[in-house]
Specification:
single chain, six-stranded mixed β-sheet, four-stranded antiparallel β-sheet, globular, binds adenosine-5'-triphosphate, ABC transporter ATP-binding protein/permease
Length: 300
Amino acid sequence: LAQLFRPLDFLGMVYREIRQGLIDMEAMFGLIDTNEEVKDAPAATALTEKGGAVRFEDVRFSYDPEREILKGVDLSVPVGGTLAVVGSSGAGKSTLARLLFRFYDVTGGRITIDGQDLRAVTQASLRRAIGIVPQDTVLFNDTIGYNIAYGRDGASRLEVEAAAKGAAIHDFILSLPQQYDTPVGERGLKLSGGEKQRVAIARTLLKDPQLLILDEATSALDSRTEAEIQETLARVAERRTTIIIAHRLSTIVHADEIVVMEAGRIVERGTHGGLLAQAGLYAEMWMRQQTEDEEALAAE
Ligand code: ATP
């Protein structure tokens, strides 16, 4: 009988793997989509993780041939380092994350993680290695416990609770009528933007990736919730290689390196202090946000 069920087990595993990949992408890009063109190379091997160092070498990319979106991007994030990517809307920031996840293949140059070209490793191993806290988290019509456990197959209740504690959402869950068994999503309890982000953080803690992509929400949370979420994210990013796609400059002041993108190119790079001293685009963005923040505070 065991023999009979083995293939089913295997199918289950494949199904979960595909589902995990889809959900990560769906969460990240706000759509369910698969890209048939990206396939594992016949000789693809599993990514050997050594801390998640990232390198983009003269990366070029276009979604369609007439319009180049990335026009030669060079960047590197050492193991444990934090890189922040800023720039105006449409500059290509999220495209960098999509390429790192190998949702598309580069059209020129190459991307490596721990020295291995993304095109030489299996997509399953790549997607296991990267954790994403997306702008907008998709919740399933299931319990909040299930929604967190989703971060890793086979997670125990204790591990789920530990992750929820790390994401500072455990106490909130205990206050719910059925605690971890409370249904959420469209047909259950609706969570606020901040609570949904905490679910995403808890999922990521369970996944425990060496490489982390934080895609900051453009939608405004109230300033207290935002400060609390930032604090939690900073803890999650500790000891991990992290790329932050940032909209709020105040959240990236301590990044090891900040790159400013403009129309598919990196036009400025440095630390927060260094960039302010350059008195260029970043300094201008910083001043503008300071003024906006003051106006928002005055209005609160
Ligand atoms: P934002 O800050 O608004 O999120 P961004 O810097 O992250 O912007 P990207 O999402 O990387 O920008 O998009 C860069 C460019 O690529 C945009 O001009 C966009 O229109 C284009 N683009 C994005 N996705 C696709 C796609 N699937 N097909 C064609 N063009 C696309």
